[in-house]
């Protein structure tokens, strides 16, 4: 059994940010911090006061985290980046609503005295002697303190307050990891018991000292359980100042998920029910877990559920039957082929998440070269006369600025060149598409063809596949490469416009040219001949894509989406050969291209192609790769051993224990993560609990349902009024079995909770 805690964070957009550059604009980006650790950084949006990021992160973190903070900064080419403001959310505020936070929040000013970090280690004793009460505070050490000096360190000392008395430790110079090991004694003053407060300060020779943080303990704690251990530093208590919107606002979506994952055997009955549902008839199904979940969920919750279900069935080797089950339900209730899979149904969301989970390496292989060319070449392309800037094209002429016609012709040539490369890459990739994706598309092709066999609907089976592959996979990746890990930064405005034109063209090809000339964008007409020529090639590609033998699918359940030998993270890092004594010269650092897999960390002088990754992503990937290692250290030295001492904590012993704790529990969710069917089934169980009462009323407490044979014409999926007696009996039996399984899981959770609280003796538990 394990407890899990994760944050789903979406940094959507900002508005009304202040201008920090002389141009009257800003180049904003966001940093996301959990407690003292930076876990994510958005891309920089250039020259914008109302940036749109749309970046989403899943952060797996320890159960005892305290605060989530978002810092908005303006990126500067020269000098330090300017801090615009921040949003701080406490754990309690996030957990107050199970649905999470989804709102605009004003940015607050960043107060240096409130920006504290780190922990302090104390051992406190309350003593009585002939002179009265005495408090003995053993100040041992602190770690991860904020750097207050220009050198990137601090000169910390501790000041202890108890009643009207105060006493200080010595000052430790140039370290963020001081070790005092000093015992301070204070005598009780007459009157009511007083709290104990320990403050940390950075000593400055000139000017006032800088605040580093504090901890405080009330009298009751001192008497009943004197502090002994590590304690997180806090800022001075004060109400956070709201800028009233003068610093702008962030739109954030944050949801905290905390749960207990039971041993696998407890989820086996629910997993069997889910497997039975996907392998059974879908059209009459109204009481299976999947039917209940489809009826209950909507919006973002449905997308999250779709991701969980896809991972669950991938882990069981049943992704194909699961998608086929949803396809059969969707096709059965669709009468107009033009609306097939056009809504955000569970079937649509599941197929979309399925492609992202299993098809990302394929997507990168197909689109990476062309996307990189667009970013690197930075060609100006525009077909819309209303947006055309004649001065932006690089054309040397003695006749003055180029005309609108010249710009259109040049843009058309560039667009068709890029589109030709994209279409060539896509239509030539059928053999490289993952077998499990091809089989899912083959099933989709067959179900749609069976439902709409008429000649006038001959293109529907193609549109069903291209609607997913082109409109929901390739086109979004072209439009926003950053969100699909194709680039590390969002595009600048000019490149973003070029990508938009390319994405629109790919969408038109995915629609098989059926809507060309019907919209308001008549300026796209010069591209129509190229798009129509590409449609026939796309049809041939789709025929080859679904021409796959079912035996090609990996048969057994898979615990990972990628093999252990596959690359998990890659990019440039600096390496240095360890040399004894002295500072390392600059030329001692070598820039090397590192690759991390679940089995090894390797490097070479140069890559085949570059994909630079940020430090937080590297740390997350390394933590995941080393998760099975039982010899991981709980602490480390963030500095180097130079001149016979550690530069971080100033200790002289080379073998001294680490002064900074490792953050192995904080990782970023990623499509490469190993599958965990138990965690996904636990989430499905939580979702089913929301519909338990509705399920009971609908199937077990409804005595007014007409069960005569004359009422045997079904009125739609999930309807009881028109169900025949046999179908109704099967649905009632399925509902009763599902409620029984949920009740068993309820009891298992209650028993484990009682064991944790010590109210029952530990022992074997049965599901």
From TrEMBL:
Annotated ranges, domain Ras-GAP: 301-511
Span of domain C2: 1-105, 116-231
Domain of life: Eukaryota
Chain positions covered by the region annotation Disordered: 701-720
Alphabetical UniProt keywords: GTPase activation, Metal-binding, Repeat, Zinc, Zinc-finger
Pfam families, sorted: BTK (PF00779), C2 (PF00168), RasGAP (PF00616)
GO MF annotations in UniProt: GTPase activator activity; zinc ion binding
Descriptive protein name: RAS protein activator like 1
Chain's gene name: RASAL1
């Amino acid at each position: 059994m394990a407890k899990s805690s994760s944050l789903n964070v979406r940094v959507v957009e900002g508005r009304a940010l202040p201008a920090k550059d002389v141009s009257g604009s800003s180049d904003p980006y966001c940093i996301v911090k959990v407690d003292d650790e930076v876990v994510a950084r958005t891309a920089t949006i250039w020259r914008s006061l109302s940036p749109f990021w749309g970046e989403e992160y899943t952060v797996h973190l320890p159960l005892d985290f305290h605060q989530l903070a978002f810092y908005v900064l303006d990126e500067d080419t020269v000098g330090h980046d300017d801090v615009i403001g921040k949003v701080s959310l406490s754990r309690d505020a996030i957990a107050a609503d199970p649905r999470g936070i989804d709102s605009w929040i004003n940015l607050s000013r960043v107060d240096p005295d409130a920006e504290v970090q780190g922990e302090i280690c104390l051992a406190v004793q309350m003593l009585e002697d002939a002179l009265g009460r005495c408090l003995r505070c053993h100040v041992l050490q602190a770690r991860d303190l904020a750097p207050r000096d220009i050198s990137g360190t601090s000169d910390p000392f501790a000041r202890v307050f108890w009643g009207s008395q105060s006493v200080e430790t010595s000052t430790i110079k140039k370290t963020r990891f001081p070790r005092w090991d000093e015992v301070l004694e204070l005598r009780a003053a007459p009157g009511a018991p007083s709290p104990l407060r320990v403050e940390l300060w950075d000593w400055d020779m000139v000017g006032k000292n800088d605040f580093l943080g504090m901890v405080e303990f009330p009298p009751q704690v001192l008497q009943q359980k004197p502090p002994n251990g590590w304690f997180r530093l806090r800022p001075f208590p004060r109400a956070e100042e709201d800028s009233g919107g003068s610093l702008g606002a962030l739109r954030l979506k944050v949801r905290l998920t905390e749960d207990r994952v039971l041993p696998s055997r407890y989820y086996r009955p629910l997993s069997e029910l889910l497997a039975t549902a996907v392998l059974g008839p879908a059209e009459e199904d109204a009481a299976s877990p999947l039917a209940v979940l489809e009826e209950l969920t909507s919006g973002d919750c449905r997308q999250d559920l779709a991701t969980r279900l896809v991972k669950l069935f991938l882990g069981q080797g049943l992704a194909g039957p699961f998608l086929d089950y949803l396809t059969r339900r969707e096709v059965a209730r669709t009468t107009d082929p033009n609306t097939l899979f056009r809504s955000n149904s569970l079937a649509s969301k599941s197929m979309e998440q399925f492609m992202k989970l299993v098809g990302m390496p394929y997507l990168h292989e197909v689109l990476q070269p062309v996307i990189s060319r667009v970013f690197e070449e930075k060609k100006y392309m525009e077909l819309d006369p209303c947006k055309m800037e004649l001065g932006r094209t690089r054309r040397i002429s003695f006749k003055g600025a180029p005309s609108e016609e010249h710009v259109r012709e040049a843009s058309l040539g560039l667009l068709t060149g890029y589109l030709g490369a994209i279409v060539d890459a896509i239509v030539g990739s059928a053999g490289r598409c993952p077998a499990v994706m091809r089989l899912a598309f083959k099933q989709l092709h067959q179900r749609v063809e069976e439902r709409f066999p008429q000649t006038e609907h001959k293109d529907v089976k193609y549109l069903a596949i291209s609607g997913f592959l082109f409109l929901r996979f390739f086109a979004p990746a072209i439009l926003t490469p950053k969100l699909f890990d194709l680039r590390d930064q969002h595009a600048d405005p000019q490149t973003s416009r070029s990508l938009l034109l390319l994405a629109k063209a790919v969408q038109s090809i995915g629609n098989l040219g059926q809507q060309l000339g019907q919209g308001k964008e008549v300026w796209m007409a010069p591209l129509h001949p190229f798009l129509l020529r590409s449609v026939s090639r796309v049809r041939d590609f789709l025929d080859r894509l679904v021409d796959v033998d079912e035996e090609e699918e990996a048969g057994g359940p898979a615990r990972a989406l990628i093999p252990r030998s596959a690359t998990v993270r890659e990019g440039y890092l600096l390496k240095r050969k360890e040399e004894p004594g002295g500072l390392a010269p600059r030329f001692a650092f070598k820039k090397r291209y590192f690759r991390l897999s679940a089995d090894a960390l390797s490097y070479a002088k140069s890559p085949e192609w570059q994909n630079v990754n940020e430090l937080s992503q590297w740390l997350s990937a390394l933590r995941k790769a080393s998760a099975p290692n039982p010899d991981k250290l709980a602490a480390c030295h963030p500095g180097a051993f130079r001149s016979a001492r550690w530069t971080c904590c100033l200790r002289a012993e080379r073998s001294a224990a680490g002064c900074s704790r490792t953050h192995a529990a904080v990782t970023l969710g990623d499509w490469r993560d190993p599958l965990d069917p138990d965690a996904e089934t636990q989430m499905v169980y939580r979702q089913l609990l929301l519909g338990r009462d509705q399920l009971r009323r609908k199937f077990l407490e409804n005595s007014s349902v007409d069960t005569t044979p004359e009422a045997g014409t079904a009125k739609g999926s999930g309807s009881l009024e028109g169900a025949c007696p046999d179908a109704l009996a099967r649905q009632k039996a399925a509902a009763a079995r599902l409620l029984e399984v949920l009740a068993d899981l309820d009891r298992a959770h209650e028993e484990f909770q009682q064991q944790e609280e010590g109210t029952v003796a530990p022992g074997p538990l049965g599901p």
